[in-house]
Amino acid sequence: MLGGGLVPGSLVLLGGSPGIGKSTLTNMALANLARAGHRTLYVSAEESPEQVRLRAERLSPDALAVPVLAETDLDAVLEVLAAQAPPVCVIDSVQTLGASGLSGAPGSVGQVREVAGQIMELAKARGIAVILVGHVTKEGALAGPRVLEHLVDCVLQFEGERERPYRELRALKNRFGSTHEAGLFEMRQGGLVEVLDASARFVAGATRAPGSVVLAAMEGSRPLLVEVQALVAPSELEQPRRVVSGLHRNRLALVLAILQRHARVATGGADVFVNVVGGVRVDEPGCDLAVALAVASAARGIALAGAPRACFGELGLTGELRWVGHPERRLAEAARHELGAVIAPLHSGSQASEVATLAQALACALPARDPVTVVAAA
Ligand SMILES: Nc1ncnc2c1ncn2[C@@H]1O[C@H](COP(=O)(O)OP(=O)(O)OP(=O)(O)O)[C@@H](O)[C@H]1O
Ligand SMILES: [Mg+2]
């Protein structure tokens, strides 16, 4: 995720919503470093040493070996850091440390800036790699850590739905490497476990019922097969619902407009729900076609035709299907999981069922009968 490792003297901001697993992730990282013989320090300004120990007991013996400093006063933390100069240190969290002599409660913009600034100064001077943990709401609304994004070297975001086991780590900014990588983890009793073959799970779990489509997505530089599900139902509301999870709302709005205009799939009077199964987020242009096929399949009440297959591609405003990056990796991943010819844009590769437009993709994926959708008819 960091592009090769932690750089001495650098600051990494790890953001995430409450309870997502930030402390678990950083604890486990320090435990691995400790096992490899590195000195570390875990500063907990949120939990008591007892609470940290309880978690560590659940994680591993190495986690128990990580030195913990439970302290909320910045000066006290700086003193310990200066004295010990551990090569790697986690501050959990930047919002609960308070700088004395500064007005405002811990977590306020002024305090967060001051705390991060002072830690950075010391970290650069002593070559300490610091990971700052920060809370961000789902919308990124909280003023707190966002104000630090320009200050730190890397910004990592830990996300996922708390009720589901999958967690994704993404880089939003990285001065030392690419921001295209993503790590997929599963939260278990014993901590976070990297999910090595997520595609296999998602493909096996795909229902293939009307409204279900497998998307060959890219997670950073890695291909990932995920199931996209849609539900289209007549609405009682004046403004029908548009509910998405796992992708951006505006993308759904765009796809619905293109479907209506270029494929005569009308959903104006219907509630539309689209969900990327497993709580994964696939915000990339390549997901358009999967969303369109899922919605069309749901609206018509017809499952995708032929052998189990996947799709990918971006939709243009004139109804054309546009080329997206790494078609060869997406196709290889689909082939590895024994999915039939993948519906893809032109120039994607000879193994794909290449189509030029959304209308062609629909004709290929859904047995075309009545162009008027079930919902529109209802
Ligand atoms: N025994 C357990 N088995 C499985 N998962 C657990 C267990 N205990 C806790 N968890 C998971 O760990 C999560 C909390 O992890 P953690 O404390 O690392 O999150 P956090 O992001 O640091 O939270 P906070 O915002 O409170 O600091 C819980 O939401 C839960 O999903
Ligand atoms: Mg925590």
Secondary structure topology:
Layout: E1 11-16, H1 22-35, E2 40-44, H2 49-59, H3 61-64, E3 68-70, H4 74-84, E4 88-92, H5 109-126, E5 129-135, H6 143-146, E6 154-160, E7 166-174, E8 182-188, E9 191-194, H7 198-205, E10 212-219, E11 222-234, E12 242-245, H8 249-263, E13 270-276, H9 288-300, E14 309-311, E15 314-315, E16 321-322, H10 327-336, E17 340-345, E18 353-355, H11 358-365, H12 374-377
Helix pairs in contact: 4-5, 8-9, 9-11
Bound molecules: adenosine-5'-triphosphate and magnesium ion (MG).
Strand content: 25-35%
> How far from one another are the termini?
49 Å
The strands making up the biggest β-sheet line up spatially as 3-2-4-5-1-6-7-8-9
Q: What molecules are bound to this protein?
A: adenosine-5'-triphosphate, magnesium ion
Described by strand count, sense and barrel closure, the largest sheet is:
9 strands, mixed
Quaternary organization: single chain
Shape descriptor: elongated
Mean pLDDT: 90
H/E element string?
A: EHEHHEHEHEHEEEEHEEEHEHEEEHEEHH
- The number of helical runs is 12
Question: What is the strand tally?
Answer: 18
Helix/strand structural class: alpha/beta
Fraction of residues in helix: 25-40%
Cα radius of gyration in angstroms: 24 Å
Could you list some keywords that capture this structure?
12 helices; alpha/beta; 378 residues; nine-stranded mixed sheet; binds magnesium ion; 18 strands; 32% helix; seven-stranded mixed sheet; binds adenosine-5'-triphosphate
Overview of the structural elements:
The chain is α/β, with parallel strands linked by helices and 378 residues long. Helices cover 32% and strands 27% of the residues. The protein has twelve helices and 18 strands. The chain has helices at residues 22-35, 49-59, 61-64, 74-84, 109-126, 143-146, 198-205, 249-263, 288-300, 327-336, 358-365, 374-377; strands at residues 11-16, 40-44, 68-70, 88-92, 129-135, 154-160, 166-174, 182-188, 191-194, 212-219, 222-234, 242-245, 270-276, 309-311, 314-315, 321-322, 340-345, 353-355. The strands form three sheets. The chain has a nine-stranded mixed beta sheet with strand order 3-2-4-5-1-6-7-8-9. It has a seven-stranded mixed beta sheet with strand order 12-13-11-10-14-17-18, with helices on both faces. Strands 15-16 form a two-stranded antiparallel sheet. α8 packs across α9 and α9 (288-300) crosses α11. The longest helix has 18 residues, at 109-126. The N and C termini lie far apart (49 Å). The mean pLDDT is 90. Bound molecules: adenosine-5'-triphosphate (ATP) and magnesium ion (MG). Magnesium ion binds at residues 22-23, 46, 92. Adenosine-5'-triphosphate (ATP) binds at residues 16, 18-24, 46, 58, 135, 162, 187-189.
